[in-house]
Amino acid sequence: MQTEHSPLSMCRLFSIPDLDWACESFGHGHINETYLVSSPAHAESYILQRVSPAAFHHPEQVMENMARVTKHLGQVIARRGGDPYRECLSIVPLKTGEIFTLAADGAAWRMTRNITGTVSFELPDTDDVFEKTGQAFGTFQRDLMDFPAATLHETIPHFHDTPDRLRLFREALEKDICKRAEGAEDLIRDYLARADRADALTAPLSAGKLPLRVTHNDTKLNNVLFDEVSRTPVCVVDLDTVMPGLSAYDFGDAIRFGASTALEDERDPEKIRFSFPMFAAFARGYLQALDGAVTPAEADSLPVGAWMMTYECGMRFLTDYLSGDTYFHTAYPEHNLVRAKNQMTLLQDMEHYADEMLSCVRSLIA
Ligand code: ADP
Ligand code: GN1
Ligand code: MG
């Protein structure tokens, strides 16, 4: 166990040359602390991360999943003639050979090779970028189809169990430890008014009507690295929540984030609309990559996933707001409230497109 845990002191533990490294905050993740580690004296750079102990209570399980999943993906990518060091995350071990270290505060630190010459986006600027994002996440899911799902750890239990998220929301509301419910009444009412739909994915899953797959479960656009010149996807990152799940989770979470006309953090709700053209673009790419592997019931569940992931994520932001912002990184006191409002605005607009979304996915698998 390490007692000192500044990013630079952590760097020295990993099996990279002993140089005068610069370490700067990197990326826009809401969960882990991410640093770019670089030096003019070395061609390669690295990504150092402090895995959030608030999110992941068993970092050793996160890392075991990550090691096994990256090994599997690396083999699949090499078999099709790709470059596993560019198209897949590669873990840089510690000098001891271990793949993570625990700091005194209980947080795990890990390192991966920086995949250079890439960019990540916060919103798709063209349909083409989002269609390719769909291909990237569809390919990711296809590449893991023969991975033994039951051997993966559930790194966050009940992660996309929306009825359970609703239970936690109600609990936070009941406790209201920060006295923040007052002032958010309308929004709280909007989330509670939709409670009867919270089991629209878990019920068919329990009834065996939807297949359990190995899914990414956190398919935000910024979890895909694109080649900075060709703007084609290079690598899917953020493998902490790769677990058994539904296609509807991956499809839906990507739509929630990318088929919006404004950022998740936008302060002007007037700017938030659901973009059906972006929905259709992602659906084309995703279903093309999965090429016949999607069952008809699963295809029908994809628009439900878009609704559910938006509902669930908004409710998670609101729960965190009510509980004092202990989970998601926030930059100001109302940040989670703003996010929760934005998800509700997006959800309400999306609800007008239920029929179009269904016809779109049905026509794509026909
Ligand atoms: P979080 O769980 O906080 O979102 P991520 O693992 O997604 O953390 O990392 C945050 C961001 O850092 C990613 O969205 C991506 O842009 C960038 N990133 C992570 N790992 C790498 C890597 N190996 N190479 C290049 N960029 C990376
Ligand atoms: C988090 O880790 P990141 O920033 O890619 C969260 C997702 C949320 C998302 C909302 C492990 O994603 O579930 O949908 O924020 N990840 C975790 O932006 O909770
Ligand atoms: Mg991320």
Compact overview of the structure:
The protein has 366 residues and is of the alpha+beta class. 43% of the residues lie in helices and 11% in strands.
Would you give an account of this structure?
With 366 residues, this protein is α+β, with helices and mostly antiparallel strands. The protein has 2 domains: 114 residues, Phosphorylase Kinase, domain 1 (2-Layer Sandwich), CATH 3.30.200; 239 residues, Aminoglycoside 3'-phosphotransferase, Chain: A, domain 2, CATH 3.90.1200. Helix content is 43%, strand content 11%. The protein contains 12 helices and 11 strands. Strands 1, 2, 3, 4, 5 and 6 form a 6-stranded antiparallel sheet that branches. Strands 7-9-10 form a 3-stranded antiparallel sheet, covered by helices on one side. A hairpin with a 5-residue loop joins strand 9 and strand 10. Helix 10 runs antiparallel to helix 11. The N and C termini lie far apart (55 Å). Magnesium ion binds next to loops.
**CATH class bucket of the largest domain:** Alpha Beta
- Indicate the multimeric state: single chain
Number of helices: 12
The string of secondary-structure elements, in order, is HEEEHHEEEEHHHHEEEEHHHHH
End-to-end distance, in Å? 55 Å
Q: What radius of gyration results from the CA coordinates?
A: 20 Å
The biggest beta sheet, please?
6 strands, antiparallel
Question: Which fold name is given in CATH as the topology of the largest domain?
Answer: Aminoglycoside 3'-phosphotransferase, Chain: A, domain 2
Report the CATH architecture of the largest domain. Alpha-Beta Complex
